[in-house]
Amino acid sequence: MLRNATKPLASAARSPQLLIRAASTASATPAKTRPYRQKANAASPPSSLPPSSRTGKNQAFRRKKSSTGGEEIRLLSPYVLSQRLRQIIGEKGLDEAVAYLQSMPRDAQNTPVWNLVIKEAGAVGRCKLAYKLYIDMKRRHFKPNTRTFSALAAGLATVTDWENHPSLLELAHSAFDDYWALMQEIKTNDSTSPELALNPFNAFLRLFTKAKQWQKALDLYNSLDDEGPLSPTHFTYSAVILALEMPGERLAADIRHLWRQIQKRIDNGADTQLDAHVLTPLVSALTGGRSADHIMAFDIVRTYVGYAQPGDQVPATPPVALSSHLFFTILTLCFETQKYRRCIQFLRKAMVSDQRIIDFRHLNLALRACHALAMQGSLYDASDALQLLEWAYERSASFPAHDPRDELVRTAQHTTTLAICAHTTDWPAALRVFQLITGHAPEDFADGAPARPARPSPPARGHLPREVYPQGLTYFVRTALSTDDPAVARQCLRLVDAVGLRRVLGRDRVRLAGGDEGGEMQQTARFFGQQATMAVVALANAALHAKADVDVDADDAEARRWRTLRKLAHDLVPADSKKERRPSSVLEERPRVTTQELKAMDQDVKLDMITRDSKIRRS
């Protein structure tokens, strides 16, 4: 018996790999699902494998003849192991999959299998586990590739607070050093290898930028080649531009230098594709620079996007497709450089050619540009703002209910438009905005109108804003006061009475009384609530000729209603309303410069650019 028992050991001794594989497999895999040793005439792989692995024997298993003859060793392939790991991750979790992988024989593993678990670990935010798997992978003599470092960088990118994770930042530096050493090794051996890729590089560059290591990001960018597979791409430019936007200052000089490098590569025939991801941070960085930087930004927008002031030559087909974020950055450039009319002009052009990218941010910025022009003394911007608002309503009406794109119209746009009407004393435009908000027809509240309807007309769209807020009511009443027309005052009072002053200010009554200090938003609501009530009191006095007992051009019932409205407004105004601090509302601010000063500034900038060009030609 002893002699017979030693026969299998003798055959295993002649094949030590078989002995190790059989021992490790017997301890890690149940007997029913053990695929490593089967009969040669087995019809199919074990039933415990995923369905995709039971089709195609050559794909699922690698075959090896046994030294004893008559039997065949069927080895687990990395493809089947990957399928099993995905199944285990979905059913039992990542930790079970890692333990299962570490118990498998080395012949069943390869670099893509380890990349799978590293990627899954990073996807759930377990960055330290992903790095431990990366180290374990190298200890088992599996060489990392580009996808390994892409998975590592993607996992580390999930970290949002790098200040509280210094150890993870050290791991990120170590992983990047390994990646860059691998790229240099591949470049030395085969400069045309497909493994030479900058996807991990760009991911690490964005990672270091998010970790506020801007100088590190710039040093990495400067280490790239001028040409070849390791030269910058448009993703690289986008990441390095973000790295140049350090807090507290905008390095516009570095941005200009970087832009010249990009143009030089394009002129030299490099395959450098510019898109909205590159131009968005570029234009944003130049917006914070000097006047010469602003001119460069507008020139970039004209050349690559096709948006310019009337008379400038633009390409027939712009090379860069306009995106929503890029368009908002362009409008911000116009607004911050106080090119208000250009801001409105660009939005009108997009309303014709690029409607799909317009959202509430663009409309808000254009209306603020109209408001800035109104504050400078322009008398024609209330109609422009009203046209933009009416277009937004028509655009929203084309979307189905509860569509995310239907958020084009918001309360802030009504408030801004009414503020423009107040500054330009445009009462017809204010009536139209009030009609869009409430549904009340203005002609039903004019002098001599027939019996007014008890309810407003049904809204064209039930999910559009239908509420009047204190800030909008303030500007609406101020517009009526600025006309100095008793008929307008009476029409405004009738509309305010129909909407309900208590309904508008009732939700803010505690804050109006000073019972809730709150933050900036609370202070703004309290301030404009007081302004609205005081404006209603002044309007009621104007309609009654500033005397409570005088009743002109109004019947007794209407006069009593206005006195009741005035008393209600008095009750809602706190006694210390004059002590209320004015909030930091952009609609209450005065313009920083006048139109004449802007024209003089433009002339100075043009003269400066002409002087620079002449110096360059002489040199």
Description:
The chain has 619 residues and is mostly helical. Among the domains are: 2-109, no CATH class; 110-230, Serine Threonine Protein Phosphatase 5, Tetratricopeptide repeat, CATH 1.25.40; 468-588, no CATH class; 591-619. Helices cover 61% and strands 2% of the residues. It is built from 29 helices and three strands. The chain has helices at residues 2-5, 7-13, 16-28, 57-60, 78-91, 94-102, 111-123, 127-139, 146-156, 166-189, 199-210, 214-222, 234-244, 252-267, 276-287, 291-304, 324-336, 340-353, 360-375, 381-397, 411-424, 427-438, 470-483, 486-499, 501-506, 509-512, 520-543, 556-572, 595-618, and strands at residues 37-38, 61-65, 72-76. A three-stranded antiparallel beta sheet has the order 1-3-2. A hairpin with a 6-residue loop joins strand 2 (61-65) and strand 3 (72-76). The protein is elongated and about 100 Å long. Mean pLDDT is 76; it is low at 1-62, 508-518 and 546-554.
Q: Ranges with pLDDT <50 over ≥5 residues?
A: 1-62, 508-518, 546-554
In round numbers, the mean pLDDT is: 76
Number of DSSP helical runs: 29
The N- and C-terminal alpha carbons lie at a distance of 101 Å
Overall structural class, as computed from helix and strand content, comes to: mainly alpha
What Rg is obtained from the alpha carbons, in whole angstroms? 36 Å
Percent of residues in helices: 55-70%
Which strand order does the major sheet show? Answer: 1-3-2
Morphology: elongated
From the 3D coordinates, which CATH architecture of the domain at 110-230 would you assign? Alpha Horseshoe
Q: Describe the main β-sheet briefly.
A: 3 strands, antiparallel
